[in-house]
Amino acid sequence: MNFGFIGAGKVGFSLGKYLSENGVSISGYYSKNLHSAIEAGRFTNSKSYENLVDLVDSSDVIFITTGDRDIEVIWNKIKKLPINKKLVCHCSGSISSEIFSNIESLGAYGYSIHPIFPIRDKYNSYRDLKKAFITIEGHEKYREYFSDLFRNIGNNTAIISSENKSLYHASAVMVSNLVLGLINSGASYLEQCGFSKEQSLEALFPLIEGNISNIKNNGIQESLTGPIERGDLVTIKKHVDSMDKGNQELYKVLSRNIVPIAKEKNKSRDYSEIEEYLGGFYEEYSSNI
Predict the structure, then answer these.
(1) Where does 19-151 show beta strands of DSSP type E?
(2) Is 90 exceeded by the pLDDT of residue 284?
(3) Cα(22)–Cα(30) distance, rounded to whole angstroms?
(4) Which of 280, 278, 216, 222 is nearest to 252 (CA)?
(5) What is the pTM of this model?
(6) Ramachandran area for residue 270 (φ above 0: left; ψ -120 to 50: alpha; else beta)
(7) 5 and 29 Cβ atoms separated by less than 8 Å
(8) Measured at the alpha carbon of residue 15, what is the angle toward residues 125 and 211, in degrees to the nearest 5?
(9) What pLDDT shows up at residue 283?
(10) Cβ distance 157 to 135 under 8 Å?
(11) Helix (H, G, I), strand (E, B) or coil at 81
């Protein structure tokens, strides 16, 4: 099958190059910016197209690698073209294949193919895409085709349902974008202690890396350390008292989240005073552990 790309930004560049480097035939790129399409074609040893019709005609699999807000706009153009038996895909984490309205009546098949991976650079991110976990959502006819394609390249894959796309994407945001907010808060506390911005990150980074490595090697429960895990209410109170009100609430909410993990890890330890200090919601959290 020939894979064509509509959109020549970071995702289009990276995914096209990654697939090309692994033996997948790339027909080429169409973009509203012709220069970007030409650049992407050169980068992937494929063609650039000046009009959408030719790209669609030359491709069996059509990837829409634009921003999320443009996916439906592009689809409304594509669905007016001959797309019988073609596979139309987008790479959004939060949007399902249902955005391709009435696609089955046109004899085509719609999919969401999403790498759980930060694509930051259109020239270099493809080198690390083999590390990405790929999720596939869409029509059952070709789901296994895409799953096998990426597994054969070396990626782990999973098939998810359309109704779970928002929750799935929230998971990715929680452990990537929102973690940046936590790290920024932690670094700012060190700056208040007299560290420079550079020193703050330099000091914290071994802790961050060590924690991630522990989670990977030992799992979440066995990686939990710190005052919550120890049942050290005195230290927890000192932490809260040292923060402004907004961060006090953030600290307490996150602490509530890990109390059930601590209780599961240390079944004989009494966490009742910590629970009372932090507030409720333990049944809800415990049910998700």
Answers:
(1) 25-30, 47-49, 61-64, 87-90, 109-116, 133-138
(2) no
(3) 21
(4) 278
(5) 0.86
(6) beta
(7) yes
(8) 45
(9) 47
(10) yes
(11) coil
Close Cβ partners of 150 (under 8 Å, ≥ 6 residues apart)? 134, 136, 157
Residue 27's SS3 state is strand
Read off the DSSP letter of residue 128.
Answer: G
DSSP letter string, 48-62:
EESSHHHHHHH-SEE
Q: Write the single-letter amino acid at 204.
A: L
**Where is 200: in which H helix or E strand?**
helix 197-218
On whether the CB atoms of residues 205 and 213 are closer than 8 A, the answer is no
Per-residue pLDDT tens over the stretch 44-100: 999 999 999 999 999 999 999 999 999 999 999 999 999 999 999 999 999 999 999
Half-sphere exposure of 211 (CA within 13 A, CB side): 10
